[in-house]
Amino acid sequence: MLSPRVSPMRRPVRAAAVPVAVALCGLLAGCAGSGAAEDGTGGNGNRFISGDGNVTEFTPGDRKSVQDVTGEGLDGKPFRLADLKGKVTVVNFWASWCAPCRGEAPSLNQVYTENKPKGVEFLGVNFKDAKDNAKAFERKFKVAYPSLFDADGRVTLAFREVPPSAVPSTLVLDRQGRITARIIGATTYSKLGPLVTKALAEK
Is there a contact between 139 and 156 (Cβ–Cβ < 8 Å)? Predict the structure, then answer.
């Protein structure tokens, strides 16, 4: 049983649920609700609930490893999360059809740019999207770190031990590849930065 320290919770946005797929929606509340594509991807069945930015932090004894995650990048190259072991890693779940993802993109880039020289890595997981739209998103927001292409949601399912639960969501992994913090919903520079700094301070 996880014993996370949870920041005060606010009731998440709720909407009529129309599941994308039963298995995925059992894992991700982010698959259900209103908020269909707004930028040309409409009609692909995307539905999501935007989280409220709630943060959960996990003590070292309660952290779950996600080192077995593999996938293919938007650039077509294979990727193994285990290759980043030894570095603090931030994993962000996003989609081009998700308005809050567009809002948080500058903050993610800023935290990445400031912390990469300290050995921090970032990885995006592009969830149930069209590859061309995802690449256009990265160009528009000048995303400097790689993303896995997760058109069918299988990569996201690999995080089922501590599911992201909404799009966007962000996970901070310690140097052992274990989840030390989770943000459900859009993040900000002032929220994500201290979590990364805290993970870096751990020995």
Answer: no
- Tell me the sheet residues that pair with 86: none
Are 134 and 102 in contact, with CB atoms under 8 Å apart?
A: no
Give the orientation angle of helix 99-115 with respect to helix 189-201, to 10 degrees: 40
Nearest to 3 by CA among 67, 56, 65: 56
* CA torsion, ordered 31, 161, 190, 122, to nearest 10 deg: -90
CA angle 91, 95, 99 (to 5 degrees): 110
Distance CA 165, CA 156 (A): 10
pLDDT of res. 161:
73
Cis peptide before 78, with omega less than 30 degrees from 0? no
> Which residues are registered as beta bridge partners of 51?
none
Averages of pLDDT over each 10 residues, the chain, 203 residues: 42 32 41 35 41 85 89 94 95 96 97 97 96 97 96 88 82 95 95 97 90
Count of other CB atoms within 10 angstroms of residue 88: 24
| Nearest of 172, 171, 175, 122 to residue 148 by alpha carbon | 122
Number of other residues whose CB lies within 10 A of the CB of residue 196 = 22
Residue identified by tokens 């005060």 is 8
**Phi, psi of 148, deg, nearest 5:** -85, 145
Contacts with 9 (C-beta within 8 Å, 6 or more apart), sequence order: 52, 54
